[in-house]
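Good morning,

Attaching, inline, the backbone tokens for the sequence recovery test we're adding to the shared suite. The designed sequence is right after.
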């Protein structure tokens, strides 16, 4: 399970504090040293860990915490609050355009789960938010991506707009947006072309797509299993495209959790959804407070 090692380490640290009638500054320092190591081992970005520990320590050694009736509990509450803040505080919802359709560009590297997530998001929009989405097949480079999206659309009974692989992605997207307006479809989910690595050709194409389609949302799909790499990818995409949200996939695997804890702090962009499996209903809105509670047990 995700976060297993981090959660058990933090829980062991806080079990020691919880029972104490009196907590000294030294106890807090010791606990924070353990927290620091646990976060680093979970692949949380070094600077993020440093800032996090400093913030918690400053709040936790405050007189009102240490002199309270349940100082151990209060320290844990500070950690919980700060973990929640670290992941973005409140829930960040998907954009809604004032005038439909809402255009969403789905971006990411090959294998991250972009096409699967595009299908899942359409399913979520229709099932949970009562919307009528259109799936748009613009990943013309990965041989099976168009077919994959068509299969997902059929399975979900959600329309898929495609023009094969000979037409440029931007033209496909423009035609799809016009089609959505005609058909009164209110979300246009563009499955853009992924690549194995970030390169100028990819970014150039995505920038052009952004300029022309003027998306209300650019969601970057990253694989939680890749840890720090996921955060580096998010940083690069954000520099080039100013993404508006991140979808962290494969959180059902045994990821150490570093990406979930670092993405917002490093890029300033919130995680909006998490992928919890391969099935079409395995997409969940991301709640920082619930995630923090899950980690702290
Ligand atoms: P793309 O190249 O980014 O479009 O990647 P795909 O959508 O084809 O996904 C790559 C693989 O990851 C597929 O086998 C998906 O089923 C799998 N995948 C995607 N999201 C998740 C997830 O949240 N959990 C798990 N376990 N697998 C996922």
């Amino acid at each position: 399970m995700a976060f297993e090692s981090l959660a058990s380490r933090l829980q062991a640290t806080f079990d020691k504090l919880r029972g104490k009638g009196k907590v000294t500054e030294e106890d807090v320092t010791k606990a924070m040293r353990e927290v620091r190591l646990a976060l680093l081992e979970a692949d949380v970005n070094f600077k993020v860990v440093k800032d996090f520990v400093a913030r918690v320590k400053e709040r936790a050694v405050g007189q009102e915490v240490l002199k309270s009736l349940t100082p151990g509990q209060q320290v844990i509450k500070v950690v919980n609050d700060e973990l929640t803040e670290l992941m973005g505080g409140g829930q960040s919802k998907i954009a809604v355009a004032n005038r439909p359709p809402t255009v969403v560009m789905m971006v990411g590297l090959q294998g991250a789960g972009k096409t699967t997530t595009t299908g899942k998001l359409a399913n979520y929009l229709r099932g949970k938010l009562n919307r009528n989405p259109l799936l748009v097949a613009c990943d013309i480079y990965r041989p099976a991506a168009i077919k994959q999206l068509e299969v997902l659309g059929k399975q979900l009974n959600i329309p898929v707009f495609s023009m094969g692989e000979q037409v440029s992605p931007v033209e496909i997207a423009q035609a799809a947006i016009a089609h959505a307006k005609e058909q009164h479809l209110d979300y246009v989910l563009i499955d853009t072309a992924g690549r194995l690595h970030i390169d100028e050709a990819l970014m150039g194409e995505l920038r052009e797509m952004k300029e022309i389609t003027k998306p209300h949302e650019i969601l970057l799909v990253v694989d939680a299993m890749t840890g720090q790499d996921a955060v580096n990818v998010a940083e690069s995409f954000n520099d080039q495209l100013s993404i508006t949200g991140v979808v962290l996939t494969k959180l059902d695997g045994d990821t150490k959790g570093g990406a979930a804890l670092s993405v917002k702090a490093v890029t300033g962009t919130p995680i909006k959804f998490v992928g919890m499996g391969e099935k079409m209903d395995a997409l969940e809105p991301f709640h920082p407070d619930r995630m923090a509670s899950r980690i702290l047990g």
